[in-house]
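User: I'll paste a sequence; please echo it back and then give the predicted structure.

Assistant: Echoing your sequence first, then the prediction.
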Amino acid sequence: MAQKRTKPQRNTKTTSTSKPSTGGKNFHLEFKNEAQALAWAAFKQHDVLFLIGPAGTGKSFLACAFAIEQILNKERRRIILTRPIVESGESLGYLPGEFEEKVHPYMLPMYDCIEKQVGKDGPWRDKINQAMEVAPIAYMRGRTFDDAICIFDEAQNASMLQLKLFLTRFGENSKIIITGDPTQSDIAGRVALVEAMQKLRGTDGIGVVEFKLNSIVRHPLIGKIIEKLEA
């Protein structure tokens, strides 16, 4: 399918409610604008989806919410999370502690998203914890992720090699979600995320949802800050 694009309006609230098998109340998500609602619909339509836009638009939150819904509804069995580790060049050895301790600081934003949606404990959180795997790019070669929602967060900091590696890992009954803000890359030179989207544009099964400044939901000042700093 062709790219999905939107020029959303602020404060357009719609909802999505799933009926997880864990019992009790339903998993409930309220969209803050049209871009978020469009992204949710695009999750269902595409096997690979790029969520692009400024900080604070809810890209990572939506990606995690969709993964949570899929697990609670038993439509997928796994959640694969990854982020580029720019500062260490994908080498985690210099950090103290065991593997989970080494990657923990980099994964905190997605952990926060998940905690906001299913809490710190309880049956839903237990189910998500069992399904969730952190898979740094450095250790991903040769793997195949079946029956999974695979999320690549902060992809503006990834190289083309890393994006290609991730995009070729998913297997049967899996979806890939890539989030990023090309204007906030921490690496020098051309942003590979932009190049990858341009090359994949128009490919069946791949979609793009673009968030604008008026889609920011984190705090109303963020849009003004970005607009002023980029002027």
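The chain has a mean pLDDT of 82. The longest helix spans residues 99-118.
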